[in-house]
Amino acid sequence: MPQPLDVLIAKLDAIGRLSPEGEAAIRQLPVRVAHLERGEDAVMEGQVMGHCCVVLQGLLHRHKHMQDGSRQILSFHPSGDIPDLQSLHLKRVDYTLSATTPSEIGLIRHADMQAMLRAYPTLTDLFWRDTLIDSAKFLTWMMLIGQASAEARMAHLFCEMFMRLKSVGTVEGNEFPFRATQNDLADALGMSIVHANRTLQELRSAGLLAFSNGVAEILDWPKLRALGQFDPAYLHLSRD
Predict the structure, then answer these.
(1) Closest CA to 41 of 113, 87, 109, 103
(2) In tens digits, what is the pLDDT along the chain, a chain of 240 residues?
(3) Could you tell me which residue ranges the HTH crp-type domain spans (predicted)?
(4) How many CB atoms lie within 10 A of CB 43?
């Protein structure tokens, strides 16, 4: 019978070596399931945390706001991610975590997570690896936002989401769910909504990508990957 944390197990198994004992320990974690509507906050900037949040279904995003109200989306988080894992050690978070689409999350108390990690040091290594991979994504996106064209940024984002979702088994063929709006894409990629719409149309016209009603279809993977200068090495989707 499927368990709530199966998606977390699939995610960890995609990036490292998860032992049967470690898998069993994760399954035994007490988890409280909560439902979020689109735009609802799971974590608010400045909040002092006592639990970690696992994305069970749907899509979440981390973001920050400027004083003028403008928003920068920092990262998207599909099922299997723990976007606030760093709150185990940095209790006061410096971002807001919100639902991009109606979502289901699992809340795990810090005390329960820490007890498990003390009992299973190999899991500590695996969660640390996950945190380092998260940092690698930030480095890549800092470069892209600062240096890449709008078309390259958009192409890279869809390549990344395709590979991340494929690694946990939620991709069918060349299609995958990505229920971000054009406003979300604009705020993630540092462009206006009009520019985001035009960029998506250009990728469609070039026969590279189709995106409609929350579903993306990769039409030409080699060319989309080349345009986005996408090298999946920074995602470390291997056990080495």
Answers:
(1) 103
(2) 568 899 999 999 999 989 999 999 999 999 999 999 999 999 999 999 999 999 999 999 999 999 999 999 999 999 999 999 999 999 999 999 999 999 999 999 999 999 999 999 999 999 999 999 999 999 999 999 999 999 999 999 999 999 999 988 888 899 999 999 999 999 999 999 999 999 999 999 999 999 999 999 999 999 999 999 999 999 998 755
(3) 148-222
(4) 21
Answer whether 158's CB lies under 8 Å from 218's CB.
yes
| 148-235 belongs to CATH 3.40.50.720 | no
Structure tokens of 35?
């439902």
45, two tokens: 């900037």
d(CA 149, CA 129): 30
Nearby residues of 103 by Cβ (< 8 Å), 6 or more positions away:
35, 36, 55, 56, 57, 58, 59, 60
**Homologous superfamily of 6-132 in CATH?**
Jelly Rolls (2.60.120.10)
Neighbours of 142 (CB within 10 A): 10
**Hey, what are 194's tokens?**
């009009």
Domain-by-domain residue ranges, the chain?
Answer: 6-132, 148-235
Instruction: Tell me, yes or no, if the two domains 6-132 and 148-235 fold the same way.
Output: no
Token code pair at residue 181:
């709006």
Contact between 38 and 99 under an 8 Å Cβ cutoff? The reply is yes
**Cα distance between residue 173 and residue 35, in whole Å:** 29
